[in-house]
Amino acid sequence: MTEFRKPKTAAPYAHSKRTVSGMMRDVLLALVPVTLALTWLFGSGVLLNVIVAAGSCVAFEALVLRLRGQDVEPRIKDCSALVTGLLLALCLPPTVPFWIPVIGSLFAIVLAKHVYGGLGYNLFNPAMVGFAVLLVSFPAWLGYWPPPALNGLDDGGLSFTETLRIFATGEMPVDAVSRATPLDAIKSGLGNMLTMPELKAGELFDGFGPRGWVWVNLAALCGGIWLLVRKVISWRIPLGVVAGLALPALFAMTGDSAVNPSPWLQLMSGGTMLGVFFIATDPVSSAATPKGQIIYGIGIGLLTWIIRTWGAYPDGFAFAVLLMNLCVPLIDRYTAVRIYGHR
Amino acid sequence: MSISGNSADIKVRWGISAAPRKQLAALADAVVAPVPAALHISLLQNNGSTSTPVVQTGDAVLKGQHIAGLKVEVKDELADEIPVHASSSGTVTAIDEQDTAAGRTLCITIATDGLDRLHPGCVPMPEAGTLSAEQIRSKIAAAGIVGLGGALFPTATKLHAGAVQTLLINGAECEPYINCDNQLMQQHATEIVNGAEILQRACGAEAVIFACKAEMKDAHAALFSAISDADNPSLSVRRAPDVYPAGGERQLIEHITGQEVPSGGLPADVGIICQNVGTAYAVHQLFHEGLPLISRIVTVSGGGLRESLNFEVRIGTPVTELIALCGGYLDDRGGHAPDRLLMGGPMMGVPLPHDQVPVTPAMNCVIAGHATELHHATEELPCIRCGDCLPVCPARLNPMQLLDLKRRSDLPGLEQTGVSDCIECGCCDYVCPSSIALTANFIQAKQIVREQQLLSMRAGRSEQRYAAHAARVAEREREQQEQLQSQTSDLDASGSKQALDDLLRRIGKNAKDDGV
Questions:
Q1: Is the ipTM above a cut-off of 0.90?
Q2: Would you kindly state where each structural domain of chain A is located, as residue ranges?
């Protein structure tokens, strides 16, 4: 007679081998192209942000886990704090002092994540909470973007030592060129009675769209498509966001193309694609039912378009995401699928 | 190993196309396992009761002889226990509790004589075509035939279900590894069709639909040709999707007929009866060979075995005999020594304590898995609300919401969100990236909800009793009040206050005696 030890768990005794840390690692890998594109266009400050934000997110995570008396190692290994840090860093301009990403990480990990109960329990997207806090607290630092390092633009680019100096001390070099992002330019330009064709003739745009930012968005798109192929994210939320942003933009443009940016400009500006594939799709803070995911996505797209069109902020993605995070319990409740056998 | 079923030409929204291990090749015939030295026949039935032995230690028994199951009194009514039969001839050497897949249960041990002598009562009944539905059902009941898909529900009881339009013969076995029904359909399609026709007579179904999975091409062909030969226009074969759990009763009914079994109801509520192909075959064997339920086909498989085979086995045969026929376990070289033995498939299987447990009618498969084969990968993490468990759920439940409610012990919430509709298939566990033991939680929650319902039913009854009592007391008080009033008017006339107080005190005492 051969005896067998009683298993610790009940059936099933099979698993898809899909793990949280595997999904998070896929997300990290998918963020590589957009990180490289941002670094290429905006300089080494991007990498400094990445290092500090990722490092402080992980450090805060470990600290809070220890304070909460939880096992630190497995929770760090799930890589979720690393993803939060990276996403936060990629939203920041490359010319901020180091304490900006640190403060952002503090609010992201401690307030948005652990105050609500840690991984899986947070109502809001942690990276977006961190970013929104910075956006409203440090508008000067957050509003400053150097021009992308592309031929034909004024060389506002900073050397590595200058970048490092800003990063360490927060002192801007006197000759630094403040440059509006394309979305800023649209917002202020339209406010100054300029028309879209006039704006698009400016140096911030080229035939392909917002100069430089197109590449950032396309890089994010590539990573996002890879996540779709790997089935880390579902297509429903990205499609919803794109539809919610592009369709109103299309209608508005058809109505009056002089004051309304095209869907293409909307999709290729700012952090749109990063948001579509990496922020809106955060599983914890997004809707989970199939229909709910589409509604949630459309809501984010629509709110982004509304904020960009009438709001005070040139890019409203972070606020759109946070507002829709609020609606998730309601959406999931009212989009629940009819259970088998229930009429 | 991809999520959701898109591997075949039939698409459904739920389930998993899990193929952690290649199905073993169907053989020309299942290996007929020889008569073992001793048979251990479990008397435990599907409803938790145990059939009463009708033989004693030392008795000689013959193959097919009735050895357990009486008429017993259940709730003031006489009911038949499920009869159990000897699966070979020999001597009863023990009637005691033994380890089985369902824990320790009462078993009859028969030391076989190797002659396999048939009981004279076991005679074919070729007149099945002339019997009434009720006569067929009573013969099926007397043969101890139960659902061989795993639930072991008494077949005759299931057949007695009122107006039935469709008899669904389920051959869509869907768990990885398990191959016994596929084997049976390829080997005995004609016999299955014949048994199904008898079942059709017994329940009065207008149509009989045979269902196998799309990937079971040979089984499908065999059934199709058997139906063509049967000359019965009400028979047809349909294919189920190649996903797990396509063979789940409710899932198969939905896929084949488009109907849903109401929550808390039975297939019969929508005019459908579902029977396993193995059950249909057992019915054929009863009428054409005179054999009660004494054998079944068992898949013996797994990475810890030298060979994987299908066996036609006598009920009561120790699993170890089948393991030996598979060439035994692999040794530790290469890490293939088995460390887990399961009855059933990896999704819903039951771990076995050792390989001496006997084959029961529920045992469709035995898997001896090696160290990396039948294990959950990692330790449990928090739910990240990824929602992967939603689309795979064949009952269309929201497992992450149910888990949350379970952890908060929210019974009304659990009931409302359909925990009782969970079919315990394990798909949500399979896809969960946090490796949460969802199904185990839901099984527990179902149990708690069921107990709570029973309690509240009882509470409801005692509430009714109390209300009735209170009404009776109130009625009596009213009568007394009326009486009092008529008397006080008399008293008013006489003007005696003392008499009134006396009367009031008396009424108060009466009310106390009534227990109010």
A1: no
A2: 2-334
